[in-house]
Design a protein that fits this description.
The chain is of the alpha/beta class and 418 residues long. The chain has helices at residues 4-17, 24-42, 67-77, 95-107, 123-133, 150-163, 179-188, 212-226, 242-252, 270-281, 297-310, 327-339, 356-367, 410-417; strands spanning 50-52, 85-87, 113-115, 141-143, 169-171, 197-199, 232-234, 260-262, 288-290, 317-319, 345-347, 378-383, 386-391.
Amino acid sequence: MTNRYETLDHYLSVCKLHKKEVSKLIRTVLENQTQIEPLAKSEKINLDNSLNLRGNNYFLEGIKLVDDDAFCLYHTLKINSWVVDLNLRFNKLSDDGAIWIAKLISENNTLKYLNLMCNDIGADGAEQISLSLQKNSSLVYLNLNGNKIGNKGGMCMAQMLQVNTTLQHLDIGETDLKIESLIALATILNYNRTLKSINVSRSVPQFQFANWMDEIAQHFANMLKVNKTLKQLVMKKFEMRDYGMHWICDKLLTNYHLLHLDLSCNRITRDGANDLAILLNRNNPLKILDLGYNRLEDEGAIILAEALAFANTNLQKLSIKSNNIGAKGLCALAEAMEQNSVLSNIYIWGNRFEEEKGCIAFKKLIDNSRLKQENTDVKPYVVDGKTYLSELTCDITMFYYWQPVHGDGVLNTLIEAF
């Protein structure tokens, strides 16, 4: 099977042979993809070899895949050479469905991208997937975000990374990982030389251990000191405090490979910002930094602004959303952007805009084209001679959970839907 037409025919024959109900989602996606091809070609958009069966499809609301559909997909795709990207996010696949997905991973040699975000896969399903990945030599991207695989599932993923030499991107955020599996993952990454991106966000709080979040941060920091392949590290919702931030910044001083660091939704304050400023002053290669939803306040923002204005020439995107930053900190960051010609994106919504000075500073940046409107999450407007900022839907990680259905990007949404 080398195209979507043959894939559809084979899927229908599999359902008939095994007396399974034909999924409306699978059938509609494979049929409607052919209707979008002429439109995509006219807009010079490549459809790629992807099969998008996401359960949160706006155009097919309420239709989700279940375990029997995973059985049919396995028999349809196990010898398929057309599908390279399989998107199964936001469906109702459980551990039973994960068994068939694991078999597909073991037997299909062309599948490179697999998205299983926000299904009902547990520890047993994660174990089967990890075992299949130990034999697989083609998959480079796996997303299990939102599946409650727990500590056991996290340990299985760590064991898999000991053996697998092809996987480059692993997302196991929001999966109820605990301290044992997190330490195991950090330890394995001391030796793994292929993984480029990992998301371990929102581990389960374990308050029975004193300073548990800082201990985990210390293990990941020690890993960063020796790992030379990891490009992206996401540690959101970690309860991390300034001590953990100190460890990470200290070890990053000798790391010249990490480009994207996401520490949003933690407990980092101005003391952590001071450690980060030391790192930025050394002109670390870091290009994307997400510190949203912390507690930097004016003092922390001013410290970062000084480092960005006079020392750093690498950072390109910075998010400091909802950090309780007032006019002083906002003005300092605006002045830093005037000095720094490399920093192109900054996201500030959720801070304190009561004083007009901060609003005026960013309005000036946008009016002077130093900050492009599409590179920030605020838009200035004036009422009765007073400047305000309104929120725009824009962030470092856009369209991670959703796609637009109105305005710009609708064609891409339509193509991804089918």
